Amino acid sequence: MDMTNLTGSIVALVTPFCEDGSVDYPALERLVDFHLANGTDGILVLGTTGESSTMTDDEDYEVARCVVERVAGRVPVIGGAGSNATFESERKAAGLVRLGVDGLLLITPYYNKSNEEGIYRHFTAVLDKVDVPCILYNIPGRTGCSISEKNLARLAVHPNAWGLKEASGSISYATMAARYLSDDFRMFSGNDDIVVPLMSLGAKGVISVWADVAPATVHQMCADFLAGNVEAARRAQLDNLELIHALFCEVNPIPVKCALAEMGMIGEHYRQPLWQISDAGRERVVSALKGAGLLG
Length: 296
Fold this sequence. Notes:
- This protein is α/β, with parallel strands linked by helices.
- It has helices at 25-37, 57-71, 86-99, 116-127, 140-143, 149-155, 171-178, 195-200, 215-226, 230-239, 241-246, 254-262, 279-291; strands at 8-12, 42-45, 77-80, 103-107, 134-138, 161-166, 186-189, 205-208.
- α3 runs parallel beside α4 (116-127).
- Keywords: Amino-acid biosynthesis, Cytoplasm, Diaminopimelate biosynthesis, Lyase, Lysine biosynthesis, Schiff base.
């Protein structure tokens, strides 16, 4: 599916697990159906929220295959192909493209981090070898490094660099990044609490954890802003801050999987080193879900 005109709410989909630790494919299909029925504009699999860092290659590819087949071309599917080893990112990207994903998410090289030229070459190595739109992922809080302005300027003109997921949480960085946006290079917020501020700078939507539990709300907020109904979008952003913050009260995706389990969507199972949410965290998540009308 052509995703070059994609805007709005892209859900950073969780990967549901069974009690024995295996992937719960029936639950995964139910989640896909939930998003298709509630206006989600695109689906990202195998991101941070999907716990891909704890999954095997076979599991990654099978999850991607399952989602691509279930979606059946109704919305774009984006596959996370990140690694701190460039050749692993290249290999994973190629495998996901063969499975039919419509685009890729490429993260900065975490832990070893690299220098500026190394980061540039890390991205271009993958961009040069694929033929689908790619979103560059800037999240220094998790990776320990950022895409510099110099590198962003160079990467934004690559024909396969289609966008930026900006998750630094810095309006200053987003303002700088906005100078390099074009019809061929767009930005999506990677932080649910500042979607509307980033859209005011030119972002076209959000890659969202919040959308895992409230897809219709996040879709409508983005659609309202893009249609010029800024006040409605602003109100949705502000009215949902309690829920958004609750979904990040502990390390992602622990709270959002807790929320989905409380909503009866999935079993509450994680891959170690992630663990069950604290009692205080659960109380906060449940309270926020009730406040948003998502739980009775």
